[in-house]
Amino acid sequence: MKRAVILCVDDEKEILTSLKAQLINNFGREYKIEIAENGEEALEIINEIKLNKLSLPAVIADHIMPGMKGDELLAKVHQIFPRTNNIMLTGQADVDAVGRAVNNAHLYRYISKPWNPTDLNLTIAEAVKSYFQDETILEQNQELDKLVHKLKNYSVELEKKVKERTAEVSKQKDELNENLKIIKTAHQKLFVSEKKLKKLDEFKSKFFANISHEFRTPLSLILASIDDLLISEILNADNKYAVHLIKKNSDRLYRLVNQLLELSKLDEGKMRMSLSQGNICHALKDILSNYDSVAKRKRIKFKIHISKDFVDGYWDREKLEMIVHNLLSNAFKYTPEYGEISFKSNQLRAKDISEINSKNNADNPYKGKYVSIKISDSGFGIPANKIDKIFDRFEKVDVEQKFYSEGMGIGLALTKELVNFQNGFLFVKSQEGKGSTFIVYIPIEKSGFQNAEILDGKAENLTDQFDGVVKQDLEKEASISRSVKSRENKEYQSTNSLSILIVEDNDDMRNYLANKLNQNYIVELAIDGDDGLQKAIEIIPDLIVTDLMMPKRDGLSLCNLLKEDQRTNHIPIIILTAKVSVENRIEGLQTGADDYLEKPFKIDELRVRIENLIKQREKLREKYSKMIGYDIEELELSDMNG
Asked: Are the CB atoms for 290 and 442 separated by under 8 Å?
C-alpha cells in the first residue's frame, strides 16, 4: 500500500534537516517525509505526488524564502490539493502574509520559529488526523452520494414498475370483472338450463311412468288372449309356434314396462320397502330353479353354492328377485355355449363388509348382517374403458364385433339403484375375453332399513308369489328354442330350386323368416356374420337376406366382403335393420347392398323385394346369354366338369 507524504519546505538546510529528523522520528513509520529547499522544488514534488496518486495530508513551509514566498507556495498547494492542511513556519511575524495564507491557502496553522517540538508534533498529528478524517468523510459522502443516486434510480424504477403493475392490475381487474360478468351470465344460463333439464327429467319420468301404465293394460289383454289361444286346441304346429313367439316377446315387453315403472318410482321418491321374514336360502333356490332349462339349452355349466349358515332375516322379495334376475339374465345372455356361470351366496357380518368396502373405497353405514350374492360368468367380459358406464341408464355397452345385445340398457342401471335403495353395495370385476363377476351385499335385518313396511307373511313361499312372467318366459324360450334347433338341423325344403341364405343372430327372427320363405325357396340359415360368410361361399345362394347388427361380423362388413369376392359378388343382398336414419341406408347401399328393409317390416313386402331382385338377375342372365350365344348355366357346368 502506498504511504502518504508530509512535505517540508525551507531554504535553510540546517532547519530543514532538523525538521525532517523530527518528523521522521515521530511520523516516519506511517508517512513518507519529503523536503524541498524552495517553492519551485516543492511544486515539482507536489506534482509528482499527484501523478503517483499519493495523499498529501500536510505541507510545512517557511514563509521567507528566495523566489517564491511561503504564502504563495501554500496558495498553489491549495489549488492542487484543496484538502491538504497547510502549516506556515516563520521567524518573522508578517500579518499580511498570514492573512493571505489564510485566505488563499486555507491555512491550517501558523508556527513561529524556533518551534516547540511537542507543539509541532501535535500540530502535524492533528493536521494529518483531520486530513484523513475529512478523507473518510469524503469517501463516505461519495458512497452516500452513490447510494442516494442508486436510491433515486431505484425509486424512479420502482415508481415506473408500480405504475406498470398498477396498470396491469387495473387491466386484470377489468378482465376479472368482465369474466365475472360472463361467469354470472353463464351461471344464470346454467341455472335456467338446469331448471329446464330438471323439468325435462321430471317430464321424462312422468312420460315413462304414464306410457308404462298405458302399456300394461293392452299387454295384459294381449297376454291373456295368447294364454287362451295356447290352451285351446284350434292351433296347428306352425300357428302354435307363432303364438309362442308372440307370447315370448309380449312377456319381454311386460318386463320392460315393469322396469320402467320401477325407475319412475325411484325418480319420484315413491319407491317403498316391503320386508318379509324368512330364510333367504330357500328363496334364492326357488329363483335359481327357473334357470335350469336355460342352462341346459345353451349347454352352460351352471354351478350353485348357497351357504347353509343363513338364519332368518328380512328382505324385500320383489327387489331381490329383480336384482338376481337382471344379473343372471345378463350372465346367460353374454355367456356362449359350453361356458360356465356360478352363483354363490352366504351371510356376512358388518366386519367382513367393512374390510371389503375399504378395498373398494366404499362407505359402510350399516353395522349389521348382510347377504352376499356373487354371480360370475365366462362370457365376453367388459372392456376396461366401458366398465364405468354399464350402470348408466339407457347405456348399452356392446363388446365390439363380438356380441350385440338387445334391450334398452336399463336392467343394470335399475339393479344398481335397487341395491343402493336398500343400503347395499354392488361391485363389478371384469376382464375382456374372460368374463365378469358381479357382487351384491344387502342388509338382511330390520335395523338395516328405514321406514320399511313389514309384511305378515313369510317369504319362504316365494315361488307361489312370483308373478310368473320370468319363469314362464324362460320355459317357453327353452321350448321354442328346442323347436328352432330341430328346424335348423334340417334344410327348409321346397319344390323351387332357388336358394336363399338368411343371416340373422336372433333365433326367433331367423326361424320366423325361414318358416315364411320355405314354401317358395330352399332356405339356408346362418347365425352370425362369420357363419354367413362361410355358408355364402360354400353354397352360392341365389339371394342373401342379412341382419345389420350381429356378433362377430355385422351386415355391412359381410356385404362388403361378399361384393369384393369374385365368387359371390353377383349375389343380390337385402339388409334388414332397426336403424332407420338416411345415413344408415346410404352406408348400407354404398357397401353394395341391393336393397334395404327397415324393421318392423311386412313379410309380403320382403317376398316382393326378393322376387324382384331374382327376376332382375334372371333377365340379366338371359340378356348376356343371348349376347354371347351360350347358356350361362351350361357354360358354368361345362367349366366345372372340365
From this structure: no
Does residue 534 contact residue 503 with C-beta atoms inside 8 Å? no
Three-state DSSP class for 22?
A: helix
Task: Give the right CATH number for 273-479 from 1.10.260.40, 3.40.640.10, 3.20.20.380, 3.30.565.10.
Answer: 3.30.565.10
Nearest Cα to Cα of residue 381 among 428, 330, 431: 431
- HEC per residue, 603-615: HHHHHHHHHHHHH
Instruction: pLDDT band for 130, please (50, 70, 90 cuts).
Output: confident
Question: Would you say 350 and 370 are in contact if contact means Cβ atoms under 8 Å apart?
Answer: yes
- Placement of cell 344408415 in the chain: 584
Q: What is the dihedral of CA 146, 149, 151, 154, to 10 degrees?
A: -120
Q: What's the CATH fold of domain 490-640?
A: Rossmann fold (3.40.50)
Domain boundaries 4-115, CATH class: alpha beta
Do residues 120 and 113 touch, judged by C-beta distance below 8 A? no
**How much of the chain is in helix, strand and coil states, percent to nearest 5?**
55, 15, 25
Is the pTM higher than 0.90? The answer reads no
Dump the DSSP string for 99-116. Answer: HHHHHHH-EEEEEESSPP
CA distance 292 to 301: 10
Using the predicted structure, report yes or no on whether residue 461 has a pLDDT greater than 80.
no
**Residue 628 confidence (pLDDT):** 60
How far apart CA 115 and CA 89 sit, in angstroms, is: 8
Q: Are strands 4-9 and 58-62 parallel, antiparallel or unpaired?
A: parallel
Do 370 and 348 meet the contact criterion of CB atoms below 8 Å apart?
Answer: yes
- Residue 144 CB partners (closer than 8 Å, separation 6+): none
Is the backbone peptide bond immediately before 600 cis, with ω within 30 degrees of 0?
A: yes
Which helix (H) or strand (E) segment is 551 a member of? none
Q: Which helix (H) or strand (E) holds 87?
A: strand 85-90
